[in-house]
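SAMPLE LOG
Freezer: B-3
Tube label: C17
Construct: single chain, 128 aa
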Amino acid sequence: MNNLDNKRIGIFLAVAFGWAWAASGLVYALGGLSNPYFTLITAVLIMPAPAIAHIVTRLLTGEGRQGLWLQPYLRRGWSFWVLAWLGTAVLLVVGSALFFLLRPELFDPNLTQFSLLLEQTAAQAGSP
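STRUCTURE (predicted):
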């Protein structure tokens, strides 16, 4: 590994983990995940950390935008994109069906546990 590779890896790791840990620290300082909105905020802030680190690394090492691979190249390999999008949905449905075929006692079409959880949450929150 040459010096530029070491620099790239160091910058990427510093930015990716720094961004994610800073976002996590902010949520922790504000009371943690007890507030349901903080869960969403945490996901929105932490998930793009690797992509941001990639862009920052390329800018700081002078590599520019060439070969960045942030846009899909649909002319070649479009069938793989279709397979990835539709295949994921098909696998989700097949996996769910297989799960409930193997464990039918866990299937609850009335969502009773979810309804109970909503009632408990509403009771804790109080009326507006």
